[in-house]
Amino acid sequence: MHEYIPTADAAVKWGVSQRRVNALCQQDRIPGAIKIGRDWSIPANAEKPKDPRYDNKDNSTNKTTPPPAQSGPHVEDYSDKDKLSKPFKALIGNQALFYQLLESHPTPLQVFSPDGTCIFINRVFAEMTGDIGRNVVGKYNLKEDPVCLEIMGQELMDRMFCGEVCSLSGFPVPIQDTFDKGFIDKKPWEAATMDIFSLPMWDGDIFVCTISFFTVKMIYEGRADISKAQEYIETHWFEDFDLDKAAQSINLSRHHFTRVFKEISGDTPVRYYKKIKIKKIQEKLFDGNLNVEQAFAACGVEYRSAYLRLFKELTGKTPTEFRKYNNIK
User: Fold this and answer.
1) Which residue range is the domain that position 23 belongs to?
2) How far apart, in whole angstroms, are the C-alpha atoms of residue 116 and residue 200?
3) Which CATH number does the domain housing residue 319 bear?
4) Helix (H) or strand (E) run with residue 218 in it
5) How many other CB atoms sit within 10 Å of the CB of residue 285?
6) What is the pLDDT of residue 129?
7) What CA–CA distance (Å, rounded) separates 44 from 34?
């Protein structure tokens, strides 16, 4: 069975932006990529598609992929191998332009000094977090935050502030803790999950700062209990859907639960459950050892059922067409 990773992980793996990975998925240039709702999932072993701009050129200089950034200050100069290096180096040499780039970056980011203090946030981060951004710069220290330390772990925290490239998937933003500490008077949202990619910046042999880029995976702007209910449904995806149990997981009546769940998520609870089922069926269809009926059965549903119609509705293909499209035999 194929393992899948989100586009954010693929972006880190290939050294490109998440927007670029999404574009490649939409262009059908990543074999096996599947789309559930608005999100893409990519086979973990998928290779980075070649850039067509170099198809008709001597791209011998592109055959050697630079290794990941090292934990120490020495990083080899690839300016003769990568055409993007020279202008980027010139940009880094101009501090004003460099911070202008950070400010206009399309995703939220924070810059931390080596001692862990937040020293910069960009416009997107400020707009997304409201008062948090205004109150944390120069005041908040990540290394001294016990909640974040527990979530991230001491090893990752140490690596991040020793000048290593680091990433963390599914970081649950401790918004309640931020509120309790008095950094904000009002929470901008109830809960959020993000992927984090931290890039160290060196000046010669001096570690200057680390830039943390955030990819928002999920934001719950309304009620935190609906987040808990979604987690319950996702955890019990293999079982038959039980509306009463789902409602009881957050102590609501089934009628009130259904109404509030749809207001927050856009789907009824049962529709949300069925979408999870379809995602699991897609994953099973990538297993060449299973035929289509077995893939459905492995997810606890019959092939000749309403799920067959729903599969085509959500994916635009029948299970057989889906397999053929993804070259699964």
Assistant:
1) 4-47
2) 12
3) 1.10.10.60
4) strand 206-220
5) 27
6) 75
7) 12
Q: List Cβ neighbours of 93 (8 Å cut-off, separation of 6 or more).
A: none
| Residues ≥6 apart with Cβ < 8 Å to 304 | none
Q: Collect all residues with Cβ–Cβ distance below 8 Å to 151 and sequence separation of at least 6.
A: 171, 172, 174
Smallest CA-to-CA distance from 247 within 235, 238, 262, 258 is with 258
Indicate whether 207 and 230 sit together in one domain.
Answer: no
Q: With pLDDT > 70 as the criterion, what percentage of the chain qualifies?
A: 78
Q: Are residues 229 and 309 in the same domain?
A: yes
Q: Residue 146 contacts by C-beta under 8 Å, 6 or more apart in sequence? A: none
Distance CA 258, CA 268 (A): 6
Q: DSSP string spanning 1-68?
A: ---EEEHHHHHHHHTS-HHHHHHHHHTT-STT-EEETTEEEEETTPPPPPPGGGTTS--GGGSSPPPP
Q: How many beta carbons lie within 10 A of that of residue 265, not counting itself?
A: 18
State which residues of the chain have pLDDT below 50: 1, 53-84
Length of the chain (residues): 329
Asked whether residue 67 is domain-assigned, the answer is no
Contact 119/113 with Cβ under 8 angstroms?
A: yes
Whole-number Å distance between alpha carbons of 111 and 119: 6
